[in-house]
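HOLO CASE FILE
Compound: magnesium ion
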Amino acid sequence: MAKLRVGVLYGGRSGEHEVSLASAAAILSHLDRGRYEAVPVLIGKDGRWSLPASAPTTLSAGAVIAQARADAAPVVSDGPDTVMPPHPGRHTLITIDRGAPSPGNSTASAAVSGLGLDVVFPVLHGPYGEDGTIQGLLELANVPYVGAGVLASAAGMDKAVMKRLFEARGLPVTPWCAFVAADWSRRRKQVVAEVLALGLPLFVKPANLGSSVGISKVKTADALAAAVGDALAFDRKVIVEAGVPDPREIECAVLGNDDPAASVAGEVIPSREFYDYEAKYLDEGSRTIVPADLPPARLAEVQRWSLEAFRAIDAAGLSRVDFLLSRTTGSLVVNEINTMPGFTTISMFARLWEASGVSYSALVDRLITLALERHQEKQRLRTSVL
Ligand SMILES: Nc1ncnc2c1ncn2[C@@H]1O[C@H](COP(=O)(O)OP(=O)(O)O)[C@@H](O)[C@H]1O
Ligand SMILES: [Mg+2]
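Model generated. Tokens follow.
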């Protein structure tokens, strides 16, 4: 049987570029070489696509970030440029190798070649990767891909849209409101009144981001404007949420398409006041507990709500659903869904499935199968009424 050619799209024009490098390294080192041929495709921080001369190998997101911070020079691609044409065809990728100018000939000769991919694993986190944009291109190219489609990706990325869909499905969320930059500049008084009515402390977040980038915990009314300014630096839309008092952070992984399954639950114990960027990737002190210590009825609720959250946005393939469980009030809310969660071997998603009896390699296999199934199902749809 011919090997399946798997394009692993990684990096990306997002604050989570480095996390993606670690996720890709893990996938590339676990793809069964007997069955798959891996084609790593790097998307640079500038958005350029290339076939890297060497694939990423560092498996820890923290180590990749520390390295990127230490490097004075920005990471630039060392391989030929490649692009994905936005139409179906034999060649999923068109590579333009400009070559090196040879002695006596200052003009490099460009070689153009095409390559077909059987399936793409877009292991990209955050904007331009997890938000439906890449998924749109993959749809246009008609190539099977791992994970949620355009709408689910976009809805899962936008915390305000996501919370509306959760509410429509009857899932509990913390009280929240959202506004855009124009509201903040034109009717700030009203916005501030609406926001402060949620009570303190508040969490102020860019609506479309991840890894806690741009998020502040606001404890006094005076600190609100600076926090909104920070969030507006990353997105034109801001969401403000009532802080869940003394929260336990519970996470659950979902795998499947139309019949999704939920894993055991896990718990994160952040090393800092909340699970911010430093606590996620750089502090050694954050701990994760798998499985989480929860009474059976609570675990069942977490699993049921995870599947509901997955269906609420019409996700596919995989998701990680995150909850906040107040130690003070005992109430549980759905905080968010991540349609392309961190995917290293030590990431919560993989650990939750490991503890549920699915190994990392089996996960990668299953996700590729789910991608092919979903694509096949779509091929049966009519595209013409004639
Ligand atoms: N409403 C809230 N109440 C208490 N803590 C929160 C709240 N919202 C966010 N946090 C804290 O901030 C972290 C990041 O917020 P989250 O919404 O998960 O953003 P991201 O998508 O960047 O992960 C959470 O893991 C939690 O520690
Ligand atoms: Mg989160």
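CASE NOTES: Residues 85 and 141 are 7 Å apart (CA to CA). The first helix runs from residue 17 to 30.
CLOSED: yes
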